[in-house]
Amino acid sequence: MDEPDSTNTTPDTHAPAPDHPPLATSVPTAATPKQPRAERGGGGAGRTIAVGLLVVLLGFGGGVGGFLAADAMSDDDASTTSPQASGNSSAKALQPSNASSSASEDPVPVSDSVGAETPRKIYADVSPAVVHINSKVVSQSTSLFGFGQEQESIGTGSGFIIDAEKGYIVTNAHVVENAKEMEVSFGTDATVKAKLIGADPSTDVAVIQIDTKADALDKVKGGLKSVQFGDSNDLQVGDPVVAIGNPFSLDRTLTTGVVSALQREIPALNEFQIDDVIQTDAAVNPGNSGGPLLNTKGEVIGINSQIQSRGGGFDGIAFAVPSETASRVAQELIKSGKIEYAWLGVSGGELTPALANEYNLDITKGVLVGEVTAGSPAAKAGLSGGTVQRTLGGEEKRSGGDVIISFGGEAVTSMREVADVVDGKKPGDEIEVVYLHDGKKKSTKVELGIRPNTKASTQG
């Protein structure tokens, strides 16, 4: 995350988050934005939000879909964003299962980990591959007299080389968002120009490239080095980790910590959310964005992306996009310059026995469809959302919508399960849906579409 020009203040520019669809109480939606966590745009400093917690992007790239305000070159501003939409507590939004997909009943003790290295050795091996990214960002604004004007700002973040031969560097998308020019520095050895290969706001992953034949790189001691991705699915809570980046422009700073939690969810840049995120207590600060989070083998198991804080500074809670996501997205960006996600176009929530009784339904398990986006694949397939607003348990819910019983041949009981099926598909894939409509059981096939860039683009 890019670093502001001053380290003294980090005012809260959080704007109130939009409401969840009425039936989506604490569950993500299925590839309609998976429960947007923050409103685009900024607000006034000092505004109170749920439990006083902020999720702060650690880099400055100007714009970033509203999550970062474009600072002037001499400004001290930094931006923050709420971890969840209004109506949900922070604890709900960030509640993990803390379960690794490969976790066993008797995990191997850390001290017995095969191939474990000391932080000193990891730093010696990996730090040459960690770079400092400086971006010149141009944003559009309106003057006091109503005239359009361009505003330039400088941002800074981190990145790491994954292909020393071809010059590919992975970083956060928000570090290079709207960048007019980019430079990559290798400590004090050399600085070279870089170009954007592709950026994915849905995962906050980007790939940039440098010319490996640039004369300036002759000054890099030992030549260009690269790092390897590890398997974030192997992580367990308590595993030691190392972060390397450029906090406050302090080149190649190392901090250590542990995996504090797994399977967190944090806001993406486009009002969707990033799943399966790693929480760590390794200290990261503005400028660490895009830098690697490493296991004890020196493998990248995450990209440092955000922190949660009461005032904008590091409070011991940091989030990293998992390597399983980052490596997949990076390879797709290198291949085609973009990545497309499947899209269904519904939001809703779990059908509980209490809701089934309240709505006089004959079934007690399934997914209540609260809203269907107009023109979405779900709408074209005939699925309907609720039309009646009701207050249940102090919350506004929308009733009268369809109830999804099975999705893709599997019984479903939550929007998370529906979203997981969609996430495993590609645009154009067909999925069979069995649902209840006006008390009658029906089935249809949905041809998944391409997920829009933002939630706002699905409306109107």
Keywords:
single chain, 460 residues, mainly beta, Thrombin, subunit H, Pdz3 Domain, 2 domains, six-stranded antiparallel barrel, six-stranded antiparallel β-barrel, 23 strands, 34% strand, disordered N terminus, disordered C terminus
Strand and helix map with partners:
Elements: E1 54-57, H1 90-93, H2 119-126, E2 130-142, E3 148-163, E4 168-171, H3 173-176, E5 179-186, E6 190-200, E7 205-210, E8 240-245, E9 253-267, E10 273-280, E11 292-294, E12 300-309, E13 318-322, H4 323-336, E14 342-343, E15 346-350, H5 353-358, E16 367-372, H6 377-380, E17 388-392, E18 395-399, E19 403-407, E20 410-411, H7 415-423, E21 430-437, E22 440-447, E23 449-450
Antiparallel strand pairs: 1-12, 2-3, 2-5, 3-4, 4-7, 5-6, 6-7, 8-9, 8-11, 9-10, 10-13, 11-12, 12-13, 14-23, 15-16, 16-19, 17-18, 19-20, 19-21, 21-22
Short description:
The protein is mainly beta and 460 residues long. It folds into two domains: 1-98 and 116-337, Thrombin, subunit H, CATH 2.40.10.120; 342-458, Pdz3 Domain (Roll), CATH 2.30.42.10. Helix content is 11%, strand content 34%.
